[in-house]
Each structure stands twice: as C-alpha cells, then as structure tokens.
Write a structure and sequence with these properties.
Helix content: 40-55%
Structural class: alpha/beta
Low-confidence stretches: 274-285, 291-300
Radius of gyration: 18 Å
Distance between the termini: 43 Å
Number of helices: 12
Number of domains: 1
CATH topology: Rossmann fold
Number of strands: 8
C-alpha cells in the first residue's frame, strides 16, 4: 500500500513531474483527429480538453446525451476550438459499438483512439445482450471499437491507440475460463481488475499484429474522478486529500496521444507511474476467446 501511495498519489505525480519535458506537449494538433470514449467527465473529459486546446479535432464518445453536450460546451468554451463532436454510444452494447465504428470509418478520418470509458459495477448485472456488464463495457466494448477502427487508422499518418487500464490489473492473472464472472462469489472490484488485465494483454496482442499503429496502455494513478467516488466510495473518502486531479490523471494519456517522444517507445507497453514497464507475465491468448464470443460473431 505504501508503494502504491508513493507512485499513484498526488505526491507521486508531483515528484515525477520534476522530470517531465514540457516541450513534449508543445504541439499543434490541427488536422489530427482524436476519439475519446467516456469523454464527458473525469480523465476522459480532461484528455479531450487538452487535445482541443492544442487544435485537435475531438470526437467524444458518451452514453448520456445531456451530460455529453454540457461537457462539449465547456470544452469548446475553454479551448476556443469548435471542432468538438459528440457521438452517443453505449460501450456496453456490442451491436451499438460495432455499428457506430463502421459508420464512423466511412465518414471520418481517425489518427488517435483513446479507450477511456469503463465501469465498475459492484453487483453482477447483465446487459440486454446477456453479457456481464463490466466485461461488456471494459473489455468487449474496447475490443470491438478498436478492431473495427484499425483498418481506417492504417490509412492515416502516425496512428495511435491508447487504452486507459489500471494498476489494479497487477493483482490479477488472466482467467479466460470465466469471462462472464459466473463462477464463485461475484466481486466487482476483482472483476474490474481482471478486465484491466485483459486490456493490457489485448494491447500487446494488437501491437504484435498491427505494426503500422502504435499501441499503449497505461495506469493514470489515483485520480479524483466521479467514477472513483461512485464505485469505490470508502477508498475515495479515505484517500481524497492524496488523490491526483483529473488533469494529472490524464497527463500520461495526453503525452501518449500527442507527443513525438511517445512513439519512440516500443509499441505495446504498459505505462505506470513516472516510468514505463511492459508487463509480460501472461502468455494466454485472450483474442482467441473474444473471437469465439457469440456476440462478436453476430456483429462481424
């Protein structure tokens, strides 16, 4: 726990920030298109704000239209950038995600995809498609959106995919035999951590299969976001004074998305704290399991 506080807290960020290179983020993103899922609050909104400030075109993927439009208006007002667009998509719906990605690819260019949307549902719930909600949102939604957009991204210069994972994945070994969390007592926190482990593995697999695109996953540290407050209220209350701001949590996401320095790193790495380190303690092939998912078959 002490090590976690040292690396993931506000003080950990402030210590690491002393070694940042500000010039890495001094970029003009005019002409480049970015998609941010879960962009109406928290780290997603902070990321969208930073990209818009630098002139990038931002596509906000959100579930709630009212909150999305409010967030868009705030981003436009602060950035003075009108190239901010809202798309209403429920990332837990495989069919919605697939259809959106297909339509988007036909009408827009995309340089950078930021998989930020996620959830931690503490009681086992099923989506309308019969999938456990955490898995459907965090893993399957991310998988479908990314794989559906890869062909379009291969047509642009310097394409990147960044997936916001979590340091929580370090406490989980991949379990491909229970993707729907049907066995044993359901634990939302552990299910979430398992999903985040799956995202890291997917990132490595994508990186090995699609050399034209730079992939990375990352842990944003402990940031004071609405999602953290609602899903882990006790932890939030205990650690509130030590939590990073949303902008601090988004800092590495933005660096990975916009800086020239980021793509000098090998594709497929997991970034945690002030340094990057690939997590290689997994050999299982999650992609094979996902491809066999009935839901994916019905949407391919």
């Amino acid at each position: 726990m002490w090590t976690g506080k040292k690396i993931n807290s506000r003080s950990g960020y402030e210590a690491a920030a002393k070694h940042f290179a500000p010039a890495d983020l001094d970029v003009n993103l005019s002409g480049r298109s970015f998609m941010v899922t879960g962009a109406n609050s928290g780290i997603g909104k902070a990321t969208a704000q930073e990209i818009a400030k630098r002139g990038g075109t931002v596509h906000m993927i959100c579930r709630n239209k009212g909150r999305a439009e409010t967030a868009k208006d705030e981003i436009v007002a602060q950035s003075k950038n009108e190239n901010v667009h809202v798309h209403i998509v429920d990332m837990s719906s495989a069919r919605q995600v697939w259809e959106f990605a297909q339509n988007f690819s036909q009408n827009h260019k995309l340089h950078v995809l930021i998989n930020n949307a996620g959830c931690m549902v503490n009681q086992r719930e099923l989506t309308e498609e019969g999938l456990e909600k955490n898995f459907a949102t965090n893993t399957l939604g991310t998988y479908i959106l990314t794989t559906a957009l890869i062909p379009a991204m291969k047509k642009v210069e310097d394409p990147r995919v960044i997936t916001v994972s979590s340091g929580g994945m370090l406490i989980q070994k991949l379990n491909v035999d229970d993707l729907q969390s049907e066995k044993g007592t359901f634990d939302g926190t552990m299910t979430y951590a398992q999903n985040k482990r799956q995202q890291v593995i997917l990132t490595e697999r994508w990186a090995s299969q699609h050399k034209e695109i730079h992939f990375s996953s990352m842990h944003p540290g402990w940031a004071d976001t609405p999602a953290l407050q609602s899903s882990m209220p006790s932890f939030h209350a205990k650690m509130q004074s030590k939590l990073r701001t949303e902008a601090m949590g988004a800092d590495t996401v933005v660096w990975l998305a916009v800086s020239a320095a980021a793509i000098k790193q090998p594709s497929g790495l997991f970034f945690q704290g002030p340094s990057s380190s690939p997590d290689i303690n997994h050999k299982e092939d999650l992609l094979a399991k996902l491809i066999k998912t009935d839901c994916l078959k019905s949407n391919s």
